[in-house]
Amino acid sequence: MQPKLKSRVKWADREVGEVTRVILDPLSRDVSHIVVGGNGVGTQERQIPVSAFQSVTGDTVHLRAASSQIGQFPAFQREAFVTIREVEIAHLEDHLDVEPGEVLVPVPELERDVKRRTFFTNLTHAIGALLALPLLYPVLRYVMKPMYAPFDNRWIKIGNVNKIKTEDVGVQFKFKKLVKEAFMPEAEVDKNVWILKASPPVLEQVYKGKDMEFRDSTGQVVWVNKRDFPYVVYSGKCPHLGCGYKWRKVPKLGREIFLCPCHLSIYDPSGKVLDGPAPRPLDPLPIRVAASGDIEIIDMEYKAGVKAQVRIV
Question: What are the residues facing 260 on neighbouring strands?
């Protein structure tokens, strides 16, 4: 039984405070900690894991530890958490067996040090940019000209299919690519993609019975992935905000998934969004495999954060 907000909390030797907040594990969707406040814990609320529970009966949480051991539990840091609505985890509240109130999930590590800018600071910057734009336009037009160059449709060799041992399991391939930014010299950057050898059911979900065409900036078809070709490659960038994602086995969910740890978007092997804020499935890329098993791809990039698949590189 899950603890309820406002439940009383009892140590092994006496009652102390009440549950003020509930913290969840966003993957298992179970309560991982409670936050306890009240005279028995002092002026600072304490964060207590469910592993410290003796039992939960009615509106009371019984702890194994004695009140003298309160110092072993960390002080609650509100800035390290966000409400479930702030991270837009779909249907998470429907799963909970807690009363309405403040339900939290941990802030992803990559976002904890990001400072929040005030509205008026942003407004001041925007007004300054608008005033400067007429003066900067000729310079910007010259500097940004390389951005409108044709898309790079070169084939890149990234590895061999003998690295892929099992169907419907994501395998990461890392490679280096020469990239030219504006008028800067061409530089080599590290990139990655995820490839799986798809079973017929997964291929059907990816292709939905028809071949997949890829086009250049003029709309001309540059390659077609055939719907019966067993290998599927996905861009290494999450469609939500372009973060890197991983292939994870999650025992609590009973399945293997693609997981973006930054904002908790979850995808199945076909790239379909299972949960989280991602606006579209993972982005497939052109792929071909030589008789030797060597894999080649065209490294395309798409605009993040939008439902439509809009190629930008």
Answer: 265
CATH number for the domain harbouring residue 283: 2.102.10.10
Residue holding tokens 């990239």? 179
Q: pLDDT, tens digit, for every residue of 97-120?
A: 555 467 777 866 544 544 544 555
Question: Between vectors from CA 171 to CA 249 and to CA 92, what angle results, nearest 5°?
Answer: 35
Q: Give this prediction's pTM.
A: 0.56
Q: Is the dihedral of CA 253, 256, 262, 264 positive or negative?
A: negative
Q: Decide: 16 and 32 in contact? Cβ < 8 Å.
A: no
Q: What 8-state DSSP symbol labels residue 171?
A: E
134, part of any domain: no
CA–CA dist 266, 278 (Å, integer) = 8
Q: Is residue 95 one of the residues assigned to a domain?
A: yes
Provide the residue range defining the domain that includes 233. 150-298
Residue 146: DSSP 8-state: G
CA distance 301 to 36: 46
pLDDT tens for 216-249 read 888 899 999 999 999 999 999 999 999 999 999 8
Quick check: 7 and 15 in contact, CB under 8 A?
A: no
Q: Which positions ≥6 away from 213 have C-beta within 8 Å? A: 221, 223, 224
Task: Assign 289 to helix, strand or coil.
Answer: strand
